[in-house]
Batch of 2 targets.
Target 1
Amino acid sequence: MLKMKSLAAVSFVCVVITVVSTYFFSINKQPNTQLVEFTAPFVFGRFQIPKDNPLTVESVKLGRRLFYDPLLSKNNKVSCASCHKQSLAFTDGLAFSVGVSGKALPFNSMSLVNLMWGPKHFFWNGRSSSLENQALQPIEHVDEMGSNLDDLIEELSEIKAYQILFAQAYGELNGANIAKALANFQRSLVSSNSRYDQFLRGEISLSEQEELGRKLFMAHPDTKVSLRGGNCIDCHSQFLTSGFSSVFDGFSNNGLDDDINLAEGLYSLTKLEAHRGLFKAPTLRNIAVTSPYMHDGRFKTLEEVLAHYNGGIKRSKTLSPLIIEADNLADAKAEHISLNLAPHEVVAIISFLHTLTDESFLTNKAFSDPFKAGKLND
Amino acid sequence: MIKPFKIVGWVSVLLLISIAIVWHNAVPKQLTLRFYPFLGNKPLVLNNEKYPNPGGKGVFTIRDFQFFISNLELTNNRNHYSEQESYHLARFDVGKAYYEIIVSEISVSKFKQLVFNVGIDRKANGTIVIAGDLDPNSRMAWNWQVGYKFLLLEGSLFTQEKQQPLVYHIGFNESYTRLSFPLNSNTVSNEGIIELKVDILTLFNQAKPIDMNEIPNVKFDPEDVAKIANGFHHFISVM
């Protein structure tokens, strides 16, 4: 009799433990995620994804919706996509972007592409050290999207779709997870099918003019060995065409202004005089559709950009010695700084820059506005 | 009743174990290479310090200085250790007075010689392999048809007449230079640290010191490259 009672008691305890543990694990269950499938050329090199923000399908899906949702702004009219339009390689065509305040912002909108490679410092002046860190800044900036993060979280919490998407992607709706989702959508924006990529893969040949432009792009000139160069590669890496990733190697003073007019640039982050006037060398992928150019959008066309390097450089204390020295002249005349390229060489470089346009990236449905696609829960 | 010789036996065993532990902990388990940049006797100060032109008039400043160390090996008669993916980009603009390479999980006392190379071996220089600090999208890559800069030195030369840029980008397979250093109690500290002096002036102070006015930039001209790279043989020494 006693044995029967003990058995019943043990069984009861087992059932309770099973029920409680099942409940505990069910409410703490991690989202059933899988990694985003994407391919990137070997030549892009290594990339790192933060351990606490794996690149999952769910997080990218959530990030895409947030990116296109004007609810993220104070007046519910401005989304990230307002200044980062896919058809313009995620720029906005303006010299200075305009947000909720209607005031022109201090900088030109940067293209969002291949962000897992290149400089690990974001914004033109490098003030942010990760995509997660970067993501909330425009949302909270008074002139950009002007939102209060607590109010935004409350607003998003009332929307069923966001309750589900956050639960699936991260388990919780909070500011850090908004940033993580936006960061991961931006990581998914990989462009690797331009004509240049196809050329690198051996699928196509470039025209004679494009090939001349490519060679000039890739060469620092050296008249001692009769090598002419456009010197682009001294700041824009050969495959990514972005600034370099190591430390602050991806930042440069490219001679836009003299000392009197020199903007702070990287100095605002590091407070080192040697960094005054240095700005992030942007990727040149899709450069033909991302005008106007430079951190302040001062050049409207690629012809104007090339004219700058071919005679419009202004001297300042931190101007790159590589720019001064790259004059394609046997007898150095450092007084007037210019690449001294012939007109047909300028045209060739611009022709090569057009091979960096990736139509499949600009029209990729995975990167498009999900509200317009009408299938938000896909 | 415990027999005295048993006690002595146990004490001896414990003593031996203790000695073994102390000895084991005293032998460094990693070798740390520290590279300190100098110009002659003066430590390198980027941007703000001016140094005399080694072979001519004027003074110069250095804005950037980086170089590759590769294929590190430790040897003695019996033991041999080769570091995997051994490509290190030494640079001195990240807030430290020295650049450091740590070779971990080795018993330093087993080795008598340290070997590494200035530059990148022919095989890696001729491909776009991504290993160690090699990165074909980095500032040290010229382009995939030319290979890597082994050493990058950029700055400005100031003379009474003018200021001009200095650009020394030294590469080419012929410049790849093997250096070796003895490993002993004179060169390696008890903590397993070997301190190495990197003297930039050795690149210019050769049989005939180089006048930076005459050669303000070196990139692809083989003769000029060889002139500078000749200095690699004495570029690094034990401090």
Target 2
Amino acid sequence: MILKGKAWKFGDSISTDQIAPGRYFHLRTNLPELTKHVLEDANKDFASNMQPGDFVVAGRNFGLGSSREHAPRIIKIAGVNAVLAQSFARIFFRNSINVGLPVLEIDTSGIEEGDELEVDLEAGTVRNVTRDKTLIFEPLPPVMVKILGDGGLVEHFKKYGDFHLET
Amino acid sequence: MASTLAEKIIAAHVGRDVKPGEIVVTDVDVTALQDGTGPLAIEQLEELDLVRAQNPANTVLFIDHAAPSPRKELSNAHISLREFAAKTGAVLSEINEGVCHQRLVESFASPGDIVIGADSHTCTSGALAAFATGMGSTDVGIGIATGKTWLKVPETLRVEITGEFKPGVYAKDLILHLIGMIGADGATYMALEFGGSGADAMTMSERFTLANMAVEAGGKTGLFASDETTQAFLEEQGRGESYRELAPDDGAEYARTIEIDASLLEPTVSAPHTVDNTLKAADAVGVKVQQVFIGTCTNGRIEDLRVAADILRGHKRNPETRLIVTPASRSVYLQAAREGLLEVFVEAGALVTGPGCGACVGVHGGVLGDGEVCLATQNRNFQGRMGNVEGLIYLGSPATAAATAIAGHIVDPRVEFLT
């Protein structure tokens, strides 16, 4: 399946405090409300102007900080197709896979705000339609392909009743 | 095969040698949730019809991030944790008990354990030679219900520490210096392993400060070998029987080794908005500070409070600088009371709060105003961290914090107060 959408560009070191700010701590049990503030402290216009299917495109160490799984969850609930970054912080990366949000390590330096992208998860490619360029992303580890393919860790457990990660 | 500490602990759990990069499914010994991450974990287990704890005595639900609750939504989140504990037999750590990571090292984590917690600073327990790592709600929820998790065996970055701190320089200065050197992603996916004569000479409190901040370099955990210092600490907690000696093997393979001579370090601060944005406190002198916060899982232990009290004794805070002191746990709070430290803080013009995460997480108890500067002993200075995207956070040691509260601006604590 090809995912199509527009790029929203963010910088380096976008923390989970910027994705799911601590001042909305009380909304962690109300994810639809928390989603209205997704990435608010990195770009206050993102939540209200993004369209389902758009991509979050960032620099280095995206998602650093707190282990709050609410961060990738609300990015997914907002309808973001995938997050593309130069690199990811470890816990955010794992949480994203667990909640079924594709996270792709790729050189994002040539992607600009508003570029039209087409991501082919199976082929491992990102086509920048606006700039007529195709990039290849780092393949996910097989264990993560498995969990993501099942739709996240909860779905994986519904399917197998246990960890079923032999590859 | 010669193994690092991380490899050794994981290998003992899966019953065979392991190498970096391998994926293992392993038993876990201690699991932890807190009030920010717990409700979501419980929701996932309800969806899976798995509301149970495989090992209830070592499953702990901490109410620490918003304790006591500042609003009804959080009060209701707390109810869900209490109900889960009642249903499963898991341990509940109530609002008076303190920060999860301090409670974990006092009462739950032991050398050789695998500890998973739905809080990024779970790596703190690595100072007890436990493979302790932060994960999200779903991972930890499933760990609670099944007693298992999956791990990628990490590469290890060895931090070889020699020399002793000069007066006025502390473990916090070392870890800030290290993160400034390797960057906030300098140890991504790796275990940090602290060793060398300098590490061997450290107190447990100092080791906890270093291990706590492993995640601020991207690390999965921050490990120390266990030794007589570890043993004495566990005995003090009434858990001497849980001691085991664990050390990396000679010839273990490290992805990278960094040497730090502690005697060359100076008081260090991280400037807004990343932990790796470090400079010498001496180079930040003069930055006006409206709030000083002493506490947290990084630097809210009795040893930290003693350092701060020694500087504050007989002084008053600057009238334009608020001072908040939050002991990390009930036991630290009680000990500080017994030693008369709380009195020193109150006399100096501090607000002493009950134990908990307090102002660090930006939920309550010290939210910054627009443009305000805070010097905090916590582990993070991200934009918005203390509840306001317009706030500016500097990180430093308890000594730097205490001296700054008196001066009203950032100072090198050695200059005026420790000579």
